Amino acid sequence: MAWISGVGDTEFGRLEGETPLSLMARAAADALAEAGLERNEIDGLLCGYAASLPHLMLATLFAEYFGLKPRYAHALQAGGATGAAMVMLAQRLVDAGECRNLLVVAGDNRLSGQGTDSAVTMLAQVGHQDYEVPFGPTIPAYYGLVASRYMHVHGVSEADLAEFAVLMRNHAALHPGAQFKTPISVAEVLASRPIAAPLKLLDCCPVSDGACALVVSAARGETRLRIAGAAQVHPHQHVSAAADLADFALADCAERAREDAGIGIDDVDLLAIYDSFTITLLILLEETGFAPRGKAADRLRAGIFARDGLWPLNTHGGLLSFGHSGVAGGLAHIVEAARQLAGSAGARQVRQPAVAFLHGDGGVMSSHVSLVLRRE
Question: Which of 10, 11, 124, 212 has the maximal Cβ count within 10 Å?
């Protein structure tokens, strides 16, 4: 079995003077300290890519920087799903006996070291080089297209999307490391600057600096957090190749992860769902079975996704308010879920959860990883 024995992170936002390597080192040191491990006990390393440090061998570069000599080292790239994909691979490596203590880490200084314009330009390259990129769309433009179609088919309104931005800000207010904590209203979201219709500024995640790390071990730690289930699906790469922008067929991925963990949807106590845009979060909640089509906002308004609701959602504030530092942004969902399950989330701690469902999304609804974490 594979267990999460320690987690660590930095604050998110503008962190002047930091580099991807220094941020990763801070988060990794905290994760090792929580796991009670020395650096020479880490025999595996999985590292997410860094936009502001596009090194061809980032995993071994960080290993050297941090003083590790792993028997296994690997850098991964799956867009926003990379964090969840690294955790899934870590589970498989530990279960196979390849590693006993594997460090999963990601960090980037996209805000202070790269800048918003440069980050947006880089992310636009996920588009098809012949059929999309020449027309100049950015990531928000692609998601604007997805939002327009999904909203038309399923009767979702712009106010429905805004509700999720408000919820994420409310949750972030309790996290000391969150980039944005000031409360916002639905009216403020709707009145914020247009980015890519129907998405407004507050429908979009920020660009951030920050890092996250966790240790996956063969031995059960004091927190008894097991990676109980995992599954992936990769339906397309380019939005122009998607079969249906109103149905991404992700239910099977979520169901396989829950089946792998031996649980049903009613066993889930906590949700950690990727939220690069409000539409991303709404779609993923409905696709993975936590709301009927077009009804996620209704469930939010009914309190289902609040901290004291049936399925507390992104209790750290998600990408929309905690911040988005590339791979570390997605990994932050996993760190938060681990802390909630361990009962160490401080002021934002929800009732004693035992099972968390997580879902990461890369590209434009392109690569997907579902995870189940369980406190045994």
Answer: 212
**Which amino acid, residue 293?**
R
Contact present, 285 and 273 (Cβ < 8 Å): yes
For position 115, what pLDDT does the model report? Answer: 66
Tell me the pLDDT tens digit for each residue of 223-235: 899 999 999 999 9
Q: What value, to the nearest 5°, has the Cα angle with vertex 93 and ends 91 and 96?
A: 105
Q: Is the pLDDT of residue 104 over 90?
A: yes
Q: Which two tokens stand for residue 273?
A: 């769902």
- Measuring CA to CA, how many Å separate 299 from each of 91, 220, 311, 348? 33, 36, 10, 21
pLDDT, one tens digit per residue, over 169-210 is 999 999 999 999 999 999 999 999 999 999 999 999 999 999
Least confident of 92-101, 132-141, 268-277, 306-315: 132-141
Structure tokens at 220: 């059960």
Angle at CA of residue 248, ends 323 and 227, nearest 5°:
60
Average pLDDT of the chain, as a whole number: 96
pTM of the model: 0.97
Task: In whole angstroms, give the CA distance from residue 86 to residue 76.
Answer: 7
Spatial contact of 165 and 311, defined as CB atoms under 8 Å apart: no
List domains and CATH numbers for the chain.
3-114+208-217 (3.40.47.10)
Q: Rg of the chain's alpha carbons, rounded to an integer? A: 19
Write the DSSP assignment of 141-193 as a string of letters. Answer: HHHHHHHHHHHHHHT--HHHHHHHHHHHHHHHTT-TT-S--S---HHHHHHSP
Question: What Cα–Cα distance (Å) separates residue 170 from each residue in 141, 163, 294, 302?
Answer: 26, 11, 23, 16
State how far the Cα of 229 lies from the Cα of 237, in Å rounded to an integer.
Answer: 25
Please tell me the distance from the alpha carbon of residue 329 to that of residue 50, in angstroms, as a whole number. 12
